[in-house]
Design goal:
By secondary structure, the chain is α/β, with parallel strands linked by helices. It is elongated. About 3% of the residues have low confidence. The chain is built from 13 helices and twelve strands. Helix 6 packs parallel to helix 13. 41% of the residues lie in helices and 17% in strands. The chain folds into three domains: 44 residues, 434 Repressor (Amino-terminal Domain), CATH 1.10.260; 135 residues, Response regulator (Rossmann fold, 3-Layer(aba) Sandwich); 122 residues, Response regulator (Rossmann fold), CATH 3.40.50.2300. The strands form two sheets. It has a six-stranded parallel sheet.
C-alpha cells in the first residue's frame, strides 16, 4: 500500500497526488457521473490506497460503489431515512406526511445522494439489525422521522453515524434537529385572529404533542390570554392519543358549554366532528389549523411546506458529514423554520 509523506486530508492534496485538477477530484465525490469512469475509478482507488478520509462521504462512496458495481448500477452516495411508525408505508400513504420525504429525496438528489428507507417499527428491523445494515452499506448519515404518539428511545450505535431528526425536541438522546418555530407559529395565529376581531379563543391539541413541543404551544397560548383578556381564560382541551374522532363527544360538549368564537387545532378531522355534532363552520365557530397540509384544503391556519423541512434536514445532515461530526452532539442545535398564515374559509 502506498503511504503519503503526510496525512491526506483535503481534495486539493489528493488532486496533486493523482495529477489531476482539484475540480476533477471534487466531482468524483459530489457528481461522480460527470467524471470519466476510468478517471473516477483511479482516483477512488488512490484515495483508498492512501487512506484519504476527509469525511464520511468517502466511506459511503467506496462501500456503495463496490455493491452497485456488482449490480451494474451507477455510483452514488446514500443517506438513510428511518422511522418507527406502526405502519411501514406511513410516510408514503398519509397526505400530510408525504411532502417531508419528497423534500428529502429531492434535496438529496440535488446534492448527489440517494436515500434508503428503513422501518424499525413493530415487525420491522430491530435496532441492532438496522445499525448492522448501516455499517455494511457504508451509510454514515441518517434522518430519523418522528413517529406518532410518544417517542421511545432508540438504542442505536450512535457513534457510528451522523444523525438529524425533525419536528419535536423530546428525543433522547437529543440530536440536531429541524423544526417549526412553535412559539412564532402560535403567536402569529393569535395575532391574526385579533386582527380579524375574534374574541374568545379555544385550543385543542393532543397531550403528547404539547409535551413534544416542550409545552411551548400551551405556554404561548396562556401568555396571550393573560396579555389580551378579550381572548378569555379557557384552559386548553388536552386529549389523550392522537385522533380527534376518539374524543369527539367530549370535545363537542366542551365547546357547547364554553361557546368560543374560534377553535385552534391540529387535526384535519376536527371540522367533520364539529359538523356531525351540529356545529356550523365558520358560522357557529371558526377553525384554525396549526399545520395545514393536503388533508386540510380551504382551511385557515399556519402553513409550512413539508418539503422545506425535508430539504433542511438533508442540508443539516450533509453539513455534519462534511465536518465528520458523528454520534450524539455535546451541544445539539436546532434549525427552526417559520410557518406562514393562510386565510381560508374556516374563519
Amino acid at each position: 500500500m502506498r503511504k503519503a509523506e503526510k496525512t491526506i486530508q483535503t481534495t486539493r492534496e489528493l488532486a496533486e497526488l493523482a495529477g489531476v485538477s482539484h475540480m476533477t477530484v471534487s466531482r468524483v465525490f459530489k457528481s461522480p457521473d460527470k467524471v470519466k469512469p476510468e478517471t473516477r475509478e483511479r482516483i477512488l482507488a488512490l484515495a483508498e490506497e492512501v487512506q484519504f478520509r476527509p469525511n464520511p462521504v468517502l466511506s459511503m462512496a467506496m462501500a456503495i460503489r463496490n455493491r452497485q458495481k456488482k449490480e451494474g448500477q451507477s455510483f452514488t452516495s446514500t443517506i438513510g431515512w428511518v422511522h418507527s411508525n406502526s405502519r411501514e408505508d406511513t410516510w408514503h400513504s398519509q397526505p400530510h406526511l408525504v411532502t417531508y420525504l419528497q423534500g428529502v429525496r429531492e434535496r438529496a438528489g440535488t446534492l448527489g445522494f440517494g436515500v434508503d428507507e428503513f422501518w424499525t417499527g413493530e415487525g420491522g428491523l430491530s435496532h441492532k439489525r438496522f445499525s448492522d445494515i448501516l455499517a455494511a452499506r457504508g451509510i454514515a448519515g441518517c434522518i430519523i422521522a418522528p413517529p406518532r404518539g410518544r417517542l421511545s428511545r432508540m438504542r442505536l450505535r450512535w457513534k457510528e453515524a451522523s444523525w438529524v431528526t425533525f419536528e419535536h425536541d423530546s428525543w433522547r438522546p437529543l440530536l440536531n434537529r429541524v423544526g417549526k418555530d412553535d412559539n412564532y407559529m402560535m403567536g402569529k395565529a393569535l395575532r391574526e385572529l385579533r386582527r380579524l376581531g375574534k374574541g374568545k379563543v379555544a385550543l385543542a391539541i393532543p397531550k403528547t404533542l404539547d409535551e413534544k413541543s416542550g409545552f411551548i404551544l400551551q405556554g404561548r397560548f396562556r401568555i396571550a390570554q393573560k396579555r389580551h383578556p378579550v381572548m378569555g381564560s379557557l384552559a386548553p382541551f388536552l386529549y389523550e392519543g392522537a385522533d380527534i374522532p376518539e374524543v369527539g363527544d367530549k370535545l363537542l360538549k366542551w365547546l357547547k358549554r364554553h361557546q368560543p368564537d374560534v377553535l385552534i387545532c391540529m387535526d384535519g378531522r376536527t371540522r367533520a366532528v364539529l359538523e356531525q355534532g351540529g356545529m356550523r363552520v365558520p358560522q357557529d365557530i371558526g377553525l384554525v389549523h396549526l399545520n395545514l397540509g393536503l388533508d386540510t384544503p380551504g382551511w385557515t391556519g399556519m402553513y409550512l411546506d413539508g418539503s422545506q423541512v425535508g430539504a433542511a434536514c438533508v442540508d443539516l445532515l450533509v453539513s455534519q458529514l462534511q465536518q465528520n461530526q458523528r454520534g450524539v452532539p455535546d451541544q445539539p442545535y436546532e434549525l427552526l423554520l417559520r410557518p406562514q398564515w393562510k386565510r381560508g374559509n374556516t374563519v
